[in-house]
Amino acid sequence: MTSKNYNPEIHHRRSIRLKYYDYNQAGAYFVTICVQDKKCLLGKIKEGLNQINQYGKIVEEIGNYLPINFSRIEIDGAVIMPNHFHGIIVINEYQKFGESFKGS
Hints:
It is a single chain. This protein is of the alpha+beta class. It has one helix spanning 54-69, and strands at 27-34, 43-46, 49-52, 73-81, 84-91. The protein has a 3-stranded antiparallel sheet with strand order 1-5-4, covered by helices on one side. Strands 2-3 form a two-stranded antiparallel ribbon. The chain is flat, with a radius of gyration of 17 Å.
């Protein structure tokens, strides 16, 4: 990790992924993606309102585009914040490990 604030002696992050869970199976998955070093590259908060910029709009467009390219998923909800993104991705059908994604 390249963050200046990261100290492995203090920060004991561990994966919350279930060791033997097959994440290819159908279900709803909560996903968070953070900008490196927590930089506010996707927008800003102004007067208490979240305002996404051109990069935040790119993230939004990609999120809208995913279900078009990957027919087995849908985006149930998404929020773009200045330095991270939250989304709920719903996988509608099982895909065996190693199979390629099938487009629409």
